[in-house]
Amino acid sequence: MCNTFVIAGGFIGLVIKGIVCVLTVNIFYLLLFYKTEEFKYIWGIVKPMLIKLRRKIALN
User: Fold this and answer.
1) Residue 20 · residue 2 · CB < 8 Å
2) Whose CA, among 6, 7, 37, 57, lies 20 to 30 Å from 13?
3) What DSSP string runs through 1-60?
């Protein structure tokens, strides 16, 4: 699947293909599980961490 989206070769192509594959799988899981109670629980834990990280990056 990654070969159809990424035409670049070499190391850069490998990195881009890896990113595309990771994003594809994670988006699929997100769409599949976003309404479950477990996802809401984990999102409640991760969301404040992301907000803190975002603020920390914005200050720099």
Assistant:
1) yes
2) 57
3) -HHHH----HHHHHHHHHHHHHHHHHHHHHHHHTTSHHHHHHHHHHHHHHHHHHHHHHH-
Rounded CA-CA distance 29/24 in Å is 9
| pTM for this model (two decimals) | 0.58
Domain containing 14 equals: 2-59
Distance CA 27, CA 16 (A): 16
Number of domains within the chain: 1
Residue 47 is predicted with a pLDDT of 96
CA pair distance 17, 22, nearest whole angstrom: 9
